[in-house]
Design a protein that fits this description.
The complex is a heterodimer. By secondary structure, chain A is mainly alpha-helical. Chain A contains 14 helices and no strands. The radius of gyration of chain A is 25 Å and the shape is flat. The chains are: A mainly alpha, B mainly alpha. Chain A: It comes from Streptomyces gelaticus.
Amino acid sequence: MVELAELSAGPKQRGRRGARLRDSAITLGMMGPAVLLYTVMTVVPVGVAVYLSLTDWDGFSTAAFTGLDNYKHLFDDPSSTDAWYVTGLIAVAGTVCMVGLGLVYALALKGRSRTNSFFRAVAYFPHVISALILGYLWAAILGTNGAVNNTLAKFGIEPLGFLFDEKFALISLIAVIVWAGFGFNVVLFVAALQTVPAELLEAAAIDGASKRQINLRIVIPMIAPVVTVATVLNLVGLIRAYDIVVSLTGGGPAGSTQTFTYLILARSFEGTNVGYATAQAVFLMVVSAVLALLVTALRNRQDQAAAGQ
Amino acid sequence: MVVVLEAEVRERPKSAPTEGDTASRRTERKEPRSPVRWALLGVLFVVMVVPVYLLVVNAFKSQQDILDNPFSIPLSGLTFEHMSAAVSSPQFNVIGGYGFTLILVVVVDVLCILLAGPAAYAIARSLKRRTQLVLLYFLAGTFIPGAAVIIPVIYVLREVGLANTVTGLVAHDVASTLPVSIFLFVGFIRTIPVDIDHAATIDGAGRYRTFWSIIFPLMRPAVVTVLILNSIGIWNDFVSPQILLSPSSGHYTVTTAIYAGISQYSTDLTKVFPNLLLAVAPVVIFFIYMQRHIISGLTVGAVKG
């Protein structure tokens, strides 16, 4: 840290060693508290996670070092592979629907009018509400006694197990996630659409392009970089899905909606093998990091493309 | 239609040329006539708003009315009984949760600004490569899936003697807000001319004084973004308070109070709807008032962070 402070002295010193040192000390003093807290509360736990993932720690007794056993187990344990299937399906299907709906509604709501900003807010508002609470609300609506099944019952239709039937539960979960999340994409895409120059669209219209052709051939390609970033942001967010699973389905029925994070936390609290659960957490972290790095790489490419234009 | 045009004119800068106005008026006029567009917007409105309607209406009905007619508003059957029971429930108290959560949000916000502000200033104004590595070090934090590594956080808190304390939760929450806050602050400070700092130095201000009295007041847009991002994040957080503060601590946030209450009584809809409405109301009201700031703040935070 001292070394680092010396090197990061402020820009204005004129070779006076004392002044330079004082300036370095101030730089260190300004960054120190944030670096320290972040290191202790965020970086150290990651190190601890990596360490625990190499042990058979059960949460209480002393941990015995077991090497990479937990990681080998990751790929042959059915509950772990099932959770990856569920998580992957949520991430991919959820992202496809969220990006698709986001594009459709962004094209419908791109104009700068009061009506449009009202509808954008209508699409967006679940984003500010806790996913836990949204899950409980939808559980009350889709449950056996919920509004949907009660209405169906009036038409003589047997209640559907939206949340209690293995066939439907995952679809319901994905639908609620999409409901809660696509508004974010709408706002993101509208911001991008508003930067598409109007002259370009007018020129295409004069050349006889239909509205659909303009959208598909000009508008969507022009906002493609933003669509890519949104896709990866959605993917990274959805592979971490947890709160909404807890409140909507509780991982059920019969574990059919258990996501990876849900499995990690559930298993940690059973307290049988925390070491294995942290190995899963480390693995999830690696997958998130790869996806997040992808965002950074794409964004850099996008910035370079913008600079080159 | 008239409303649309008024808004259109109002949102346009005053210096905009008149041709621009007529052109956009022409496209505005075309759009509302499209039946496909209005069908899309109708579906959007129904799908997004009906759950909220059900939440509000059913919070004031009896269990029997909710089951028989979830969509109706029985004027004679409306009751405040369950709502007031939820407000004064001794078992899990959402209103009590407001107080604790609000204090948590304010404390985390203030500490985050106090730590992230000077750190971002030092990073933004340094020309050394090594200081830029500090920024990357913070950015790496955005890759960490918080919920999945919460168990090791307990382990660390136990080591430093803060397990199951509010201080421990605050320390964890502040640390989790630092990466994005510092990143947004650094980006913003770099747009402020360094000459301002030099002028302050010539007038005899030290670096802390320069930051807090000169630079920080100029950072208002970035500070608003960070405050909105962090406040909504902490208010809605469920995993950290649930796991870092066990029920024995006696402290509940809105989300953990809801979890404690609803998971127990999920079939009693007269408990579910009033409690959920109480939990959602402050956020929705805040959203309606601060809509523009919130939408742009959260979007910028997510994309740049």
